Amino acid sequence: MVPTRWAHCLPAIGLPVTGLPVTGLPVTGIMRAMPDRYAYLGPEGTFTEAALREFASGLDVEAIPCATIQATLEAVRTAAVERGIVPIENSVEGAVTATLDELATGTDLVIRAEILLPVAFALLARPGIEIADITTVGGHPQAQPQCRRWLAEHLPGAVWRQASSNAEAARQAADGEIDAALAGAFAADTYGLAVVARDVQDRADAVTRFVVVSRPGPPPAVTGADRTSLVAFLAEDHPGALMEILTEFAVRGINLTRIESRPTGDGLGKYCFSIDCEGHVDDARVGEAMMGLRRVCAQVRFLGSYPRHDGGRTQVRQGTSDAEFAQAAAWLARLRYGRV
Questions:
Q1: By the number of CB atoms within 10 A of the CB, which of 173, 251, 311, 338 ranks highest?
Q2: pTM of the entire structure?
Q3: How would you classify the pairing of strands 271-278 and 136-139?
């Protein structure tokens, strides 16, 4: 029986809670450690589940499918699971706004890791259905733009039906609610569908970035190939407000890998900025930049420092290393004590 505290994470179609294969070291003795529970954007057969499987390779985890991004993150907040995994941006369509907004405005969560997953779409339908038979196609809102040209060429008259996930669209195709779905080819077996066409995405190099989140705690150790995420809320809207934020990074030689404005919901013209930068909160330059933001912003929400999945090393400009910050602080201390 599924515990009631997990009920909000089960997809409406009634899929069971499933565990990923246990590939870690065996546990001796009568008792064995319970696997960590990971919530993910479900149902089974989503790209998020594929990202979780890649991340959890070699780990003992139990995968808990959730119907929405909001439900996935809420499962982490309420301690129904230890961690959750959700998409945050795509190389073609940009930010997944539901994730950005939940991390910016909900109860605090922190990012512990990221996964970059190449995304290849397939057109799935019930066995026997051909392209000429398809009049309705479904998928996640970010799926259609990534396959826009292919759909225009091969299914110009098909009606688009938005679904909460690509796997949910596959479920709808299996039940006959729609003719076909855009999803990963790996979802075909799960829902008893046939692959009508493979690699229907317009960009062969499309990648989606997923993040693993947990309740607040100490960040992973510095690796030298780290990313820090945060949200900065403007104190007031005035000329140069964005420049004030950017300056805190620029003068310390910190490269921004992403910055996006999002409405706060408090009225027109009220925005916050979702930011990713190179480096770790334990780096002197990043820590000082965050203190600078704290002085000029109404609020700064720290979303975590974590290793970059691509292993890209942080470029440290001359004058911005930890040693150089320490030397400058020692020099100032000597001046304050009247020493040259």
A1: 173
A2: 0.83
A3: unpaired
Token pair of 94, please?
A: 């940009």
69: helix, strand or coil:
helix
What is the chain's pLDDT, residue by residue, as a tens digit (340 residues)? 334 344 446 443 333 334 444 333 343 444 456 778 999 998 899 999 999 999 988 888 899 999 999 999 999 999 999 999 999 999 888 899 999 999 998 889 999 999 999 999 999 999 999 999 999 999 988 889 899 999 999 999 999 999 988 999 999 999 999 999 999 999 999 999 999 999 999 988 889 999 999 999 999 999 999 999 999 998 877 788 889 999 999 999 999 999 999 988 777 777 899 999 999 999 999 999 999 999 999 999 999 999 999 988 888 888 999 999 999 999 999 999 987 6
Radius of gyration of the chain (CA): 23
The residue assigned the tokens 């960590």 is 36
Q: Which secondary structure element, helix H or strand E, spans residue 108, and what is its range?
A: none
Domain residues for the domain of 8 are: 4-117+207-213
- Quick one: which of 275, 122, 309 has its CA closest to 199? 122
The CATH number of whichever domain residue 171 belongs to comes to 3.40.190.10
Same domain flag for 13 and 97? yes
Taking the CB of residue 65, how many other CB atoms lie within 10 A of it? 28
Distances (CA, A) of 287 to 217, 218, 241, 276, 282: 17, 15, 20, 14, 6
Do 30 and 76 reside in the same domain of the chain?
Answer: yes
**320: left (phi > 0), else alpha (psi -120 to 50), else beta?**
alpha
Which 3 state secondary structure label does DSSP give 279? coil
315 part of a folded domain: yes
Helix (H) or strand (E) holding 157: none
- 251 and 172: one domain? no
Residues with Cβ within 8 Å of 299's Cβ and at least 6 positions away in sequence, in order, are: 232, 233
